[in-house]
Amino acid sequence: MPTISRADILRLGGEAAFAEAVADFAAAIEAHRFTIDVPAPTADPVVEVVVRQYGGQYDVAPEPDPEVVPEPDPDAPPAPWRVSTYRIVRRLEEVGLIEAADAALDAQPILFRRFYTAGTIPHDDPDAVTLLTAIGADPIEILAPE
What we know:
By secondary structure, this protein is mainly α. Helices cover about 50% and strands about 5% of the residues. α2 packs across α3.
């Protein structure tokens, strides 16, 4: 006896619809036995296998147990994130420190190039944290998740 997957059962409309399709196809096959020059009835391949090879007998796969999502560990460090340089510039403008940031970046050409070509900065980047602290910005606020 075949075991029909939950996916096939759901694809065909649920358990009641599948049972009805099997019964209807079995009845159509039985009625076809008395016909001449009439094409045989067809159905979904799964229904045909159940009726033709197993006489309409089948089992349904049990429903999977619901997925248990574990509680996050309260002591775990936060997941790393990146902040777009656009967002950093906007936040520095909001707190009035964009000129100080530009001056600090102009004084360090390597950091200037890295900042404007990176696209995003890790929230815990030591160079970014040091630069923001040096200009009087709060790194936690400026590098907060978007």
